[in-house]
Design a protein that fits this description.
mainly alpha, 3 helices
Length: about 80
């Protein structure tokens, strides 16, 4: 059950990050991957680097994943040719 929730949170986080970053999204499957990776990045940034708790449960996970996914999309956009 945990992996299903992680995939759903990752999909929503990837979609939200694509919307927030205004066109930096890459489609459903890549946004799903970006959302899942963003969850790891956001968790690392908030928990290990900044030592900030953004909440427990799905909402806290979603916030961390969206922040991480936005950061990842920003970094990817730096290397993407236009």
């Amino acid at each position: 059950m945990g992996i299903v929730v992680s995939i759903i949170v990752g999909a929503v986080a990837g979609w939200l990050a694509g919307v927030i970053m205004k066109g930096a999204g890459f489609g459903f499957w890549i946004n799903l991957l970006v959302g899942i990776l963003g969850g790891f990045i956001g968790g690392w940034i908030f928990n290990d680097v900044l030592k900030i708790s953004i909440g427990d449960g799905i909402i806290g996970d979603l916030i961390g994943a969206v922040v991480g996914a936005c950061l990842l999309l920003f970094i990817i956009s730096l290397f993407r040719k236009k």
